[in-house]
Amino acid sequence: MLIKLKKYSLAIFGLILLIGAVKLFSFSGYQESDDDAYLKYFHQNYKIFSLNIPENLNFSNEKVPIHDFDVRERLDRELLINTYWQSQTLLLHKRANRWFPMIEPILKRNGIPDDFKYLALIESGLTNVVSPAGATGFWQILEPTAKSYGLEVSEEVDERYNVEKSTEAACKYLKEAYKEFGNWTLAAASYNMGISGITRQIARQKVKNYYDLLLNEETARYLFRILSIKEIITNPKNYGFHIRKKDLYPPIPVTYVSIDSSISDLADFALEQNVNYKLLKLLNPWLRQSNLSNKEKKKYRIAFPRASNQNIYEKLLIDSESSEDITVSSDSLTRIDSLNTNALKNQ
């Protein structure tokens, strides 16, 4: 009897082990199947594509030698970076829609090709950044350079943050560079390396074409960064960017207030114009302090949004063909007729 009981016990124990082994292998099989299904789903839904390289590219109507293998591969690098750094490229596209309408007419008025707006875009992202070297604003201008081109740089006023005035200063530099080199591509490269820096490399290497020069990493990439962001913003769908017009940052129609006196408190001054201090500083970042002493009685134009603070974004979407100028003296405000100024306009 005891022997039979032991046999039954061993049989039951063996059955338990068998059931456990079956379950273990069944579970392992399920996991493997699940991973395979996940991998299949991943392959079906996640794709990274290499890019077609545009065959006909130019910068400021100067042809890019795209069939040079080095040129082609450097362009490919920047196109890949800007295509797959989607968040940054989207932001650049959105900001360009706001600020290009202000920059474009200034370039045109100064005889500078329209493509140079993309130089400002890659220099600063159209934000008021300051580089480690102290280059400031949309056009990344150093203080000595700014002063040499007539911009005011002081504790209270820094016109490198004024988009219109800094664009005018950049145009002066670019015209000098073009006069020196005779082509816009080298003029653009010199914006990064300096006129003297490019001149030294031309003399050393005995070639006068940007694409034939061996330059430092930053300047070697410089034109290709411009070309790539120009190409993507011009043809966004070719690079996977589907942007609705309402998603772009609209230009801000403004009213200008001209002053030739001091302002003891910019917050109070803003409230008198029915806006807050934050908006005043956002639209006039060149005002660097909370007051303006203006001891020399210079005339400044301060921008204010035309829309009310409560529904400003809705009104930004409405086209505005002109901005209004107001003159402020120390005694009173005098309204001037609506002028067709260089205010930001919707495209």
What's the gist of this structure?
This protein has 12 helices and 6 strands.
At CATH level 2, the architecture of the largest domain is: Orthogonal Bundle
Rounded Rg? 31 Å
Q: Residue-averaged pLDDT, rounded? A: 86
Distance between the termini: 100 Å
CATH topology of the largest domain: Lysozyme
Q: Give the CATH class of the largest domain.
A: Mainly Alpha
Number of domains: 3
Question: Would you identify the regions where 5 or more consecutive residues have pLDDT less than 50?
Answer: 26-30, 319-347
- Strand/helix succession: HEEHHHHHHHHEHHEHEE
Principal-axes shape call = globular
Provide the β-strand percentage band: 5-15%
Work out the helix count: 12
**Coarse structural class:** alpha+beta
Describe this structure as you would to a colleague.
By secondary structure, this protein is of the alpha+beta class. The model is unreliable at about 25-30 and about 320-345 (pLDDT under 50). The protein has helices at about 1-45, 70-85, 85-110, 115-125, 145-150, 165-180, 185-195, 195-205, 215-235, 265-270, 275-285, 310-315, and strands at about 60, 60-65, 255-260, 300-305, 325-330, 335. The chain has three domains: about 1-45; about 60-245, Orthogonal Bundle (Lysozyme), CATH 1.10.530.10; about 250-335, no CATH class. The chain is globular and about 90 Å long. The strands form two sheets. Strands 4-3-5-6 form a four-stranded mixed sheet.
